[in-house]
Each structure stands twice: as structure tokens, then as C-alpha cells.
Amino acid sequence: NAGVTQTPKFQVLKTGQSMTLQCAQDMNHNSMYWYRQDPGMGLRLIYYSASEGTTDKGEVPNGYNVSRLNKREFSLRLESAAPSQTSVYFCASSERLNLPDTQYFGPGTRLTVL
Amino acid sequence: QKEVEQDPGPLSVPEGAIVSLNCTYSNSAFQYFMWYRQYSRKGPELLMYTYSSGNKEDGRFTAQVDKSSKYISLFIRDSQPSDSATYLCAMSGNTNAGKSTFGDGTTLTVKP
Fold it and tell me: Are A57 and A44 in contact (CB under 8 A)?
């Protein structure tokens, strides 16, 4: 039982490049989330997926797109990376959106945009 | 103004001390109150959560919620070096309770 896994762990991009961050969970959770965390700041929600087939914007969605590929996988895409997107990205999952279930977090992806 | 404000720290205490970590909030719709612990270069993990007002205890950890003052606290008794981490408070309402608003975190160092 791996929990929530994220790939890659580290990535360096040049301004304007694109990339996709991958996330998978093996806990049969319905809801999945993407957050970013900047130094000295808490987690800010980028996008979330309440259940397979649905996605919604969070607090800071601009510059990102997501795909809920199936129940297990939720990917985050940067179409044209900007230095302001340098951050640590965390994926999380929970059993359902409308319960304050424990959110299980992945180990994070450290992204630098030059 | 942020919906959730957390005492910024950093906090450094000797081993065995009692630690108090605090958050205030402005959204009266918040009903669920969580504390996460995040070790360096790791994802956050849930320590405790409480619903509405009151206290909850789990071993050396006690969470308190005072909804009338819009103030929550996490107390750590007999602090250990292994408690050294960043602590994040988080809150959510009854609707879409899985979507939480996080504080910025307080970094705690417990010195042996």
C-alpha cells in the first residue's frame, strides 16, 4: 500500500516549457487535490476532483490544467511554465469531498522554473 | 486579510517543554479544524481534527477550539526532538468539508 505517489520528485524547466505532474493513489479514494506550497506559506488549492469525471478550480488555478484520468490518477499540467510557478506541488486524496476525512498527501514535486 | 492566520514562529524550545501553537480565523462557517505536521521535505500528515468547539486529546497532543473567539490551539506536552517540524492548521465548513483553508505554518524546533 504505497498511499499517494507523485512523479517526478524534482524538475527544472525553462520559461515557456510545458510539463505534466503525475499523481496516483491506491486507497480507492474518490476525491483528489493539487496544492502548491511556497516558502513560509501554507498550502493553496489549485484544482480538485470530487469524484472520477469531475474537476473544479481551487484558489489559484490560473496557468494550470488538470485531468482526472481514472479513479486512481490525477495529473496537473503546466502548459507554458513561468517563474512564478516555482514551488513545491503536493497531491492529496481523501475518501470523499463532503466529509472532513483525512487528506493523505504525497511526498511532493519540487519544481523550479528558470 | 487572510481567512486563517497562524502565529508565524519560528519557535525553539528545550526538550520537555510545553508548546502552544495557535491560529485565528475570520470565517464563521468553519466547523472542522485540523492540525497537520510536516517534516522537512515531506508531505503534511494529519495529527488531529475536531468538530466545532471543545477539546480533543491524543497522547501528548491536545487540540482546543474556541469558536466564540475564532481561535484554535494545539498543545504539545513533554515535547521531544522528534516533534521538530512545521505545524499547519487547516479549517473547512460543512459544505465541501474536504476543501480546507490552511494557515501558513509554524516551524518548531525542540532542542535536546
Answer: no
Does A98 sit within 8 Å of B95, measured CB to CB?
A: yes
| pLDDT surpassing 60 at residue B97 | no
**Integer Cα distance of B34 and B65 in angstroms:** 10
Residue B83 zone, left/alpha/beta (φ > 0; ψ -120 to 50; rest): alpha
pLDDT in tens, A96-107: 776 666 789 999
The residue assigned the cell 483525512 is A102
Using alpha carbons, select from A97, A47, A41 the residue that is nearest to residue B98.
A97
B42/A108 touch (CB, cutoff 8 Å), yes or no: yes
Contacts of A33 in chain B (CB under 8 A): 98-99
Residue A10 predicted with pLDDT over 90: yes
The more confident residue out of A87 and B31 is: A87
